[in-house]
Amino acid sequence: MKVLVPVKRVIDYNVKPRVKMDGSGVDLANVKMSMNPFDEIAVEEAIRLKEKGVATEIVAVSIGEAKAQETLRTALAMGADRAILIVSETEVEPLGVAKLLAKVVAEEAPGLVILGKQAIDDDSNQTGQMLAALTGRPQGTFASKVEVEGDTVKVTREVDGGLETVSLKTPAIITTDLRLNEPRYASLPNIMKAKSKPLAQKTPADYGVDVTPRLKTLKVSEPPKRQAGIKVADVDELAAKLKALGVAA
Amino acid sequence: MKTLVWVEHEGGAVKDATLSAVTAASKLGEVHLLVAGEGVGGVADAAAKIAGVGKVHVADGAAYGHALPENVAPLVVDLMGSHDAFVAPATANGKNIAPRVAALLDVMQVSEILSVESADTFTRPTYAGNAIATVQSSDAKKVITVRATAFEKAAREGGSGTVEAVSGAGDAGLSSFVGAEISKSERPELTSAKVIVSGGRALQNSENFHTIIEPLADKLGAAVGASRAAVDAGYVPNDYQVGQTGKIVAPEVYVAVGISGAIQHLAGMKDSKTIIAINKDEEAPIFQVADIGLVGDLFKVVPELTSKL
Ligand SMILES: Cc1cc2nc3c(=O)[nH]c(=O)nc-3n(C[C@H](O)[C@H](O)[C@H](O)COP(=O)(O)OP(=O)(O)OC[C@H]3O[C@@H](n4cnc5c(N)ncnc54)[C@H](O)[C@@H]3O)c2cc1C
Ligand SMILES: Nc1ncnc2c1ncn2[C@@H]1O[C@H](COP(=O)(O)O)[C@@H](O)[C@H]1O
To answer: What is the least distance, in Å, from the CA of A110 to any CA of chain B?
Structure first.
């Protein structure tokens, strides 16, 4: 079974995002960029499925600017077999990404597509669900456990009240939650080896997909800032404050 | 404009997040509801009483029993022939279903809106809430999820909606529900609690959550939350996690105990009315957003605090 893993290049999760003065967006100039953390988890899961003999080939895909090559090389260094970069210098929205991925799915016929549950830049949390709709496949979102059994996959999902398990017919779409696994670091020899793994370059036009955005960002602003308050000297003072707030007797 | 709101319900009751979604939807026009599930006649009757609600569409059947998106999305798409917007609360179910609906309608979803600026313009958080985007949708129909903490709850009583049964295509045959492990607790639910006490990695184990965090929560009638680090380490179940990728909360009082204040955690709680932080490191970033801070060792100060309340 082939596994397809879409990976997005995003601001590194350790960086505090800064809104540009002119309100046009977040300043990404000279900011460290990395693979979306949920996508690292997706790559790791695919590799584990391959190590178990369930997956036969892992294909990483990214849609974005030419620099997204670096993100794909990271996926290859972790253990993906080959990569596809769909180059677009303008940002592609989740709906456009899902349409492009649907075309890749039609070409590659993967048994599983494993995406992140959300990209930490747009925080949309929708691409996987959209891809599932467009391909008519079942979806196991927010996965914390994935078990392939014959032609079904059992997915344990993180839901509001706890955990839920669903059984999906393969081919299926999965999105990862934080506790699915802990992604490995790529070793130096694997980083070297990754440089010679195949990486195909495409454009949205090659797939005949119109990726014109449907949402127009009119403005980006900073959220209201919280002021740091006071420090109390001891427990007595804190207890008094809680009583004053009316939450304790 | 006619909007269709997905009703999140549990144990026969409409959940609070739905009431916030109704308020958001009412800013767009006429509000209709969709109650899908198995044996949900009572839920539909309760939903029809929500203030400002028109028609309540009810899809009752085994296929809708566990909100499987493969079965629910086509049902919504059918109803969208006569609605202009689909609105769902940004709960685990809402986030699972709405994008599937959006793609089937060829619409780009607007996720987790914070406000309705006009019929096509909304604000939403991005970058873990560090950047608020104002976005305008050019799609003919809108698909929207709503951040519950950003909207008042519609009143549960006062409406007189009419209930109408709908039959969808039923089971798509793609997925099935196997089981659930739902945490049971006598405490208030995290997303609707007035007071929350959250613990972080500093708690060291689940035993300390029981002996240190819970007694304080009991005194304050509070829900218990946690940082990702505490959940990952297995001190508490996953549904306790507050943050960018956990639950979004905005209680009257949020008490963060042994939590450093990473941006991903702040994303989930910084709209709380009063934030109280207890941390032994006076430089911890949590103090930059806390209204009241106490620098100290939680193992000493929290039991002392609990005993003094
Ligand atoms: C993609 C992604 C998503 C994430 N989503 C979330 C999310 O939704 N929610 C979330 O919380 N995190 C999230 N995180 C993780 C986040 O980055 C932090 O790692 C996490 O919040 C840290 O948890 P913590 O504050 O409990 O632990 P730490 O950062 O280790 O902080 C522990 C704190 O306890 C204090 N302390 C230690 N001992 C004591 C003591 N005896 N008394 C008092 N204080 C003490 C320390 O001074 C320190 O400040 C996410 C990360 C990523 C990459
Ligand atoms: N430009 C992209 N390239 C590759 N994968 C993407 C892209 N955008 C989103 N994805 C995938 O979709 C997931 C969810 O993203 P989102 O819906 O934007 O929150 C991500 O974790 C990725 O797996």
So the answer is: 17
pLDDT one-digit tens code per residue, A192-203 = 999 999 999 999
Q: Which of A126, A229, A241 sits opposite B111 (nearest CB)?
A: A126
Half-sphere exposure of B308 (CA within 13 A, CB side): 16
Pick the CATH number of A2-221 from 3.40.50.620, 3.40.1550.10, 3.40.50.300, 1.10.1040.10: 3.40.50.620
Distance in angstroms (rounded) separating the CA atoms of residues A102 and A104: 5
Residue range A37-69, pLDDT digits in tens = 999 999 999 999 999 999 999 999 999 999 999
Q: What are phi and psi of B133, to 5 degrees?
A: -100, 135
Q: How close A8 comes to chain B (CA, Å)?
A: 14
Measured from the Cα of A61, ligand 2's closest atom is 4
SS3 B58: strand
Interface test with A, best of B8, B100, B218, B257 (most A CBs within 10 A): B100
- Regarding the beta carbon of B228 and ligand 1, being less than 6 Å apart is answered yes
Is pLDDT above 90 for A226? no
Q: How confident is the model at residue B184 (pLDDT cuts 50, 70, 90)?
A: confident
Band (pLDDT 50/70/90 cuts) for residue A225 is: confident
Residue from B272, B265, B277, B284 nearest B302 by CA: B277
Annotated binding-site residue? B263: yes
- Which residues are CB-neighbours of B16 under 8 A, at least 6 positions away? B148, B153, B191, B192
Express each pLDDT in A180-192 by its tens digit.
Answer: 999 999 999 999 9
Do A177 and B231 form a contact (C-beta atoms < 8 A)? Answer: no
Residues 175-234 of A with CB under 8 A from B: 177-179, 213-223, 226, 228-232, 234
Model confidence at B295, in pLDDT bands (50, 70, 90)? very high
Report which residue type is found at B53: V
Q: Which domains does chain B have, with CATH numbers?
A: 2-165 (3.40.50.620), 190-307 (3.40.50.1220)
Burial class (CB in 10 A: 0-12, 13-18, 19+), A27: middle
**Per-residue pLDDT tens over the stretch B203-238:** 999 999 999 999 999 999 999 999 999 999 999 999
Tell me what the pLDDT averaged over chain A comes to: 97
Pick the ligand that lies closest to the CA of residue B262: 1
- A183 alpha carbon, closest ligand: 1
Give B257 Cα–ligand 1 centroid separation in angstroms.
Answer: 10
- Considering chain A, what percentage of its residues have pLDDT values greater than 90? 96
Contacts of B261 in chain A (CB under 8 A): none
If one counts every other C-beta atom within 10 angstroms of the C-beta of residue B162, the result is: 10
Global pTM? 0.96
Closest Cα of chain B to A199: distance in Å?
A: 29
Domain boundaries, chain A: 2-221
What residues have CB less than 8 Å from A140, skipping those under 6 apart? Answer: A146, A153, A155, A157, A166, A168, A172, A173, A174, A175, B175
Q: Which of A26, A131, A134 sits opposite B127 (nearest CB)?
A: A26
